[in-house]
Structures are given as C-alpha cells and as structure tokens.
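Fold sample X.
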Amino acid sequence: MHTCQATITRTGTITSSVIYHLSSKHPEEHNLMKKKLRLAKKSQFASLPLDNEGSQYLTRLAVEFLIYNLFPISLVECPKLQTIFTQIESSYGLPCRKYMMKTVFEKMYNDTRAQIANELKNANDKSSINFFSQSVCLTMDGWSSQTGQAYLTVTAHFIRKDYVLKSVVLVIMEFEGNHTSERCNAFLEELCIKWLIFHLITCLVSDNCSAMKKTGVMFGKGWLSCGDHLINLCVNYMKYRKH
C-alpha cells in the first residue's frame, strides 16, 4: 500500500472529497477500506457464543436473579428482561429456558451440591477439638403450595470448626400421597444415607403433629418439637379459650 502527496480541501468534518479521491485515484485502497468497515460493523453486532466467558458471566447473573427473587424460569423469555441484558452487552442474547434448565441450572445445582457435601464431610472431622462440629441436627417440615401440591423440606444444621452455625437445605421435593410416619421415616433415612450423614445425626426437629412425632421416634436419633410451632399452639389455645 502506498500514499500519495495530494492535498485535498474539505470543509469542517465532511469527508466526501477524501472518499471520492480514494475511489477514483486509489480504488484498491478504497475497496480495502470498505471491507474493513463492513467487518468492523458486522463484528460489532455479532452475537457472543454462549460458552464465551462474558456470556457465561451474564447468564449466571440472570439465573441468580431468578433464584434470589423466586421468579419463574419463563421470565428469561420476557422481552423487557432481554432488553436489559442487551443494554449491558449489545452482543449478548439471553438463552432460552430449555438451555437454562439443561445447562446452567443443572451445573449450578451440581456445584452447590458438591459444596454442601464438602461442608458436611468437614462436619465429620474427628480431629477437630470442637465437639459440635461432629454433629448434625435435622429439621423436617411438610407444607403445601398455593396450588395444593404437598412438599417435604429437610434442612441440616451444624457448627463449623470455626464455631459458625451453618444451615443447608438438603432437599425440597414433592411428596405425593399420605404423609404417614412410615413413609416419612423411610424418606428421611434414605436421604441421610445419600448424603453420608446418618451417623452424624443427633436430633430431628419437626412440628407437633402426630405423624411427625412418630417419625421422630421411628428415626431413632432423638426428637424435639419445634419451638415456634409450640408457641403458636399455646397462643391460639389461649386466644380461643378467652372466647
């Protein structure tokens, strides 16, 4: 490529005279310039691959936003949310819900599960001088959604070696059928074996219903009634007694 010594007069920021000079006197350079401009414009609006580091970061932000606010996964297909992320990075496109469920959510679940498993493993550290770091207490609760679906939630509580209380949810799952003590006990035992913590359990805490009480006895690790539930029963009893 060469440059000529021609002096071109132009007014202000107008470049038409320069462009005309290039196209008429230096057609090869002019065509090369146009090609570079087209490529630059195309790359400006090209979509980032989903496995790009920047895309993965923005996708994770979107998922954490949904999880933190308990929003439905369908929100990723909302045009307004897509616009927000496009404003952050014009070349980024929010993935569809299928990709989110199969790829992003599954990976985040596996990562979180591995982290929790490691924390529970450390709770079994026999070399620790903190006795409580070798014990795990479980809370178990049955509840129903607004649509009438029955669920069971089990949470593990333990004190870390640095004496910090830690609580982790082991499972929230739909529990169809009757909530009998036999079924609840079998579910609880299977869960503890799956997480390798059965030998660490020192107590089960639940509400005061008969099925949960019997589950605590069958579980054989000691049972305590939930303090909040007990206080609620006492308050309601006194309230109705006055009437």
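Fold sample Y, listed below.
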Amino acid sequence: MLLVNAFQGILGFVWFILVVYTLYVLVTGKKPKNLSKLVWAIIIILLPYVGVILYWIIEKNILK
C-alpha cells in the first residue's frame, strides 16, 4: 500500500512539473497559432490534463 501511494505521489509531482513547464513554454514562446496565450493559460490551469495534452498536440505539433 505504501508503494502505491509513493508511486501516485511521484506521478502527481511529475505531472505538476509538466504543467508548470508547459505554462513556461507558453509564456516565453512565440505567439500561439490558434488561440491567444491567455486562453491557453486558462485552459491549462482549469483543465490540467486535457489542457497540457491539447497544447502540445495542437500548438507544438508533437504528433508530426
């Protein structure tokens, strides 16, 4: 049980770092192609899982 809790804690921390890094890239990068920076920031903050995935797929074309 302790191992499961530790694993969940590590995954949560890694996801938090990914959200912070995505916001950093958004703020310091060039103007987004599809939506404004403010809209992307709101999406990433309010919907962290979906927002981060959508940002990297739509704006950064990670699937190309």
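Sample Y note: Residues 2-59 form one domain.
Also: The chain is about 75% helix and 0% strand.
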